[in-house]
From TrEMBL:
This is ASCH domain-containing protein. Pfam families: ASCH. SUPFAM superfamilies: PUA domain-like. InterPro entries: ASCH_domain (IPR007374), PUA-like_sf (IPR015947). It comes from the Bacteria. Residues 18-123 form the ASCH domain.
Length: 126
């Protein structure tokens, strides 16, 4: 009898989790923020499109699917290429966004590389 089992070398989607500050959590949960900015820690570098990302803030969580991961050399180059409203919500100006990101990540962290994680909200599990 011939074995008809098919195998694939395609990697299976992985699950990741990140903690986030409350105002940004609320924007993601509402769908207003669809791009999360992070620096190139090893944990972030392992995230790939198709993976799931559970974002938590205190006792709240929301699950998203990664639709794209884009790496940039600096916050400036990332902000020039990405939709700033998708990063900071519709009410943050470009300058406010720069100030907010620089308040979170000092220059030595930016030097690790800048990642724009594109997110899609996943439906709640029953």
């Amino acid at each position: 009898m011939k074995d008809t089992t098919m195998t694939t070398n395609a990697p299976q989607p992985r699950e990741h989790s990140l903690s986030i500050r409350k105002p940004y959590f609320d924007l993601i949960a509402s769908g207003a923020k669809s791009t999360e900015v992070r620096v190139g820690y090893p944990k972030i570098r392992r995230i790939t499109p198709g993976d799931t990302l559970t974002i938590t803030c205190a006792d709240e969580s929301v699950t998203t699917r990664i639709t794209a991961v884009k790496e940039y050399k600096s916050f400036a180059s990332m902000l020039d290429a990405e939709d700033t409203a998708a990063i900071g919500g519709p009410d943050m100006t470009h300058d406010q966004l720069v100030t907010a990101i620089r308040g979170i990540y000092p220059p030595e962290k930016e030097a690790l590389g800048v990642f724009a994680l594109h997110l899609a909200l996943m439906p709640d599990k029953p």
